[in-house]
Structures are given as structure tokens and as C-alpha cells.
Amino acid sequence: MVRVLLASLMVLAQAAQAQVALPSVRLPGLPTVGLPLEVDKTLPAVTGALDPGRLQDLRKLRVLELIRRHPTVIELDPDGAPIIRSEVLVFSPSEAIMESARAAGFTVVRERVLDGLDARIVVLRAPGRTSTRRALQRLRALNPAGAYDFNHLYMDSATGSSAAAAGAAPEGGSAGAGVGAGPRARLGLIDGGVDTAHAVFRESVIHQHGCAGSQAPGAHGTAVASLMIGRSARFHGAAPGSELYAADVYCGVPTGGAVDAVADAFAWLVRERVPVINVSLVGPPNVMLERIVRMVIAHGHIVVAAVGNDGPAAPPLYPAAYPDVVGVTAVDSRQRALIEAERGRQVKFAAPGADMAAANSSQTFSTVRGTSFASPIVAGLLAAQMNEPDKAAAERAVADLARRAVDLGAPGPDPVYGYGLVGGDVRPEPALASLRE
After folding, report:
1. Are 105 and 128 in contact (CB under 8 A)?
2. Does domain 82-152 fall into CATH 3.30.70.240?
3. What pLDDT sits at residue 159?
4. 418: burial class by Cβ within 10 Å (0-12, 13-18, 19+)?
5. Which of 18, 79, 103, 351 is 20 to 30 A from 235, comparing alpha carbons?
6. 84 with 258: CB under 8 angstroms?
7. pTM (2 decimals)?
8. What pLDDT was estimated at residue 273?
9. pLDDT score, position 3
10. pLDDT mean by block of 10 residues, the chain; 437 residues
11. CB 31: neighbour CB atoms within 10 A?
12. Between β-strands 243-248 and 158-161, what pairing exists: parallel, antiparallel or unpaired?
């Protein structure tokens, strides 16, 4: 049975090799066992053939491969989630707490001053040969009232894309739906880097943050951004031509997606007063991230997040599962929830997330699949109703979108589709992935 499971995971991981994801991984050495599945099937076909309960193992394989390649900087926490080795986070510590930490042998690695949120996160390094787990326990024992946690790594919530990618579509006017004429909507994105040179961003204003001012465009961030604001003759996102504030939290480094980088991105978007923020990243619960998300929402911002693709029976993923975050699931062209999409109270809306194309790097497109690509559509729709951060306006915008949603599944809100389907007309044709100029 174990060998069959490993072989099943190998098939799934091989099918996902062309996925739009950061970081890209190679499959670790696993024993091969013949199964009644062809290894060259596309990911949608494979996910339909495997037990949905095993879908979360694909992300686990990505994590294990990341650790195999960078064992000196990344490890697992006691629950199996990836963390930066020897780093522990402290939320807005007093000087007394810092003095106690230094006396116990901890050193400051870096500090994130979160202007706009009136907070800061200090990253401490564990003393000597103390394990990261033991270091966290020691800090909590020094001051039980403080807020401490691991520096978890958050990964993109894509399932995959096809290997096909080709020349960009011929440019021209808008392809129709979206915010239309009028003032530009303003959206925030916390993800990988965006290839701003892609033709679908020609009419957009994009502000970038992170990576010490350098740029590290990635396929996942580019795809998500295109579904938010992209526009060309045959392509449009949910808010085409809008103004995007894109924070890169990966920067092409092994420790990309760390909590302190995500916190810094949120703080930047709060300072810039961007009303709607999309996060197509998933990971475990984290004390620092939860506090930051609560503060951002309290400031009147809408946080939209992908619910993840670990399967319908998997535990909730974060930040989508935090209170008041707008969690988004994905449906295919037949309005069916993706088999890999998570379910639960965190699901607020469903949006297209399969059988469609998104921008890739180097003026290309790829077909995409996963809740990562549904979340930006919901964010774009909400941004059309929000000019500035405002808690009351945010609640009205979400309630209005819920009224306009197409009820799917059981009558009323449900754990599969939430309030229902929105943005059904934002499904760029898959043929773009094979189109050449």
C-alpha cells in the first residue's frame, strides 16, 4: 500500500512539473510502481483519478524537496510545516523582552518596522546549537504574555498549468467585462514578482515592492496579476487596466514567502491605502500573520485569499481561514468545484479557476488551474466598489457581491461554493496558451 501511495504521488508530481509555482521543484527519488494511470496525463485528469484525501501530499512533496535542496536554512516545524531554520519571530517586543532574549543568547537577525500598522516584527536567531523548536519554547517561557512563533514559509496555492505556452495574443482594445471606464480601481497583490513587460499590462500602472528594489518576475505572480488587471484584444482580468500595488515576497530566494516578508508587504499596502489585497498563498496558522491580518482588516481593507488545493477533507489553510478574510474556491468551466479545492466555513465565494489561460513570463500564456487563480478575480470585482480603505464600505462591498453571486450547490451559503459563483465571465480562453502571433 505504501508503494502504491508513493507511486501515486510521483504521478501527481510529474504531472505538475510545468505548474505555475514558486518555488519550482523536482521530485525526490521515490520508488516507481506501475499504476493504471499514464504519467503524461494532464493534472486535471490525474487529480480526478486519485483519492482527494491524498491531494495535500503534493504540497508536502514540494516542501520536502525544498528542504532537501536547502537543508541548512529550511526545516519542518513539529506539525510538518516549513520554517526558516533557527529563526523565531517576536511581535512588537518591549525593551525588557529584548533584554531577556539577549541575555538568553538570542541575537537579532533583522527587524521589520510595520509603518501604518504601528507594529514591528523582530526576527531572532536561536542561540548556539539550540533547535528552533526549543528556542521558541524558551522565549515563551521567558515571557508567557509575549507573542512568538516560527518564521513559517507560505507557498502559492496553484495546482498547476499546462506545459504549453506560446506567443502573446495580438494587442488591441479591451475584451469586454471588467470595471469599464472611469477611475482606476486600486488593488494590492502579495505574491511572487510580476513580469510588468507582458503585453496584458500595457495599459496598467504597476507599483512594486520588496526584493530590496530589484525585480524577480515569476510565473505565478504574473499569472495572478493578469487575472486581476490584465487586458489585451483577447484577454481581460476582473479589473482590466487598473492600478496594481504588487509586493514580491519570494524574490527568487529559498526562504521566499516567510512570515516577516508577508507582514512587510501588508504594511506597505496599508501605507499606500490600497483597499483590496489579494493573497494567493497558503500555509499553517501563525501568531504573527494572524495579528497582522486582523490589523489590516481593522484598518478597513479587504483581504482576499485562496482557500488552497489540499483536497476537500484537508485542514483549513491560512490566511484564508482567518476571521473576516474573503476565502475563495475555484470552479471549472462546468461550474463544478475543483476536486482539489478545500472546503469549509472559510469559503466565501467561488470563481473560475480552471479551463482558462493566464499570462506567463516572456509574452506568453499558459493554462492554469487552482484556487490561486480564482482569488484574484474576486479581488478585482471587490476593488471596483472600493475607493479607499473603509470598514463599513468593505462590509457593504462583500455583501453586495454576495447578493450578485450565482448560488451553486446547496441553497444558500455552503462550505463548497460559499455564497456562490462570481466573475463567471472572467475566464480567458485556454486557446491563448497555443496562440502565436
Report:
1. yes
2. yes
3. 65
4. buried
5. 18
6. yes
7. 0.85
8. 97
9. 43
10. 42 38 33 26 44 71 92 96 98 95 97 95 96 97 94 85 38 35 81 95 94 90 97 94 96 96 98 97 97 98 97 95 98 96 97 96 90 98 95 98 95 96 95 70
11. 9
12. unpaired
What does the block give as the cell for 197? Answer: 513587460
CA–CA separation, 60 vs 5, rounded Å? 13
* pLDDT of amino acid 363: 87
* Cα–Cα distance measured from residue 297 to residue 43, given in angstroms and rounded to the nearest whole number: 35
Work out the end-to-end distance of the chain between its first and last CA atoms, rounded to an integer number of angstroms.
49
pLDDT at 215: 86
The matching CATH number, chosen from 3.40.50.200, 3.30.70.3270, 3.40.50.2300, 3.30.70.1350, for 155-434 is 3.40.50.200
- 33 touches 3 (CB < 8 A): yes
Nearest to 351 by CA among 130, 142, 177: 177
What DSSP assignment string belongs to 7-20?
Answer: HHHHHHHHHTTT-S
What residues contact 387, with CB distance under 8 A and at least 6 apart? 183, 186, 275
Backbone angles phi, psi at 12, to 5 degrees: -65, -45
* C-alpha to C-alpha distance for 336 and 342, rounded to whole angstroms: 13
* Identity at 396, one-letter amino acid code: R
User: Beta partners for 120?
Assistant: 113
319 preceded by a cis bond (ω within 30 of 0) = yes
Measure the CA–CA gap between 144 and 157, rounded to whole angstroms: 34
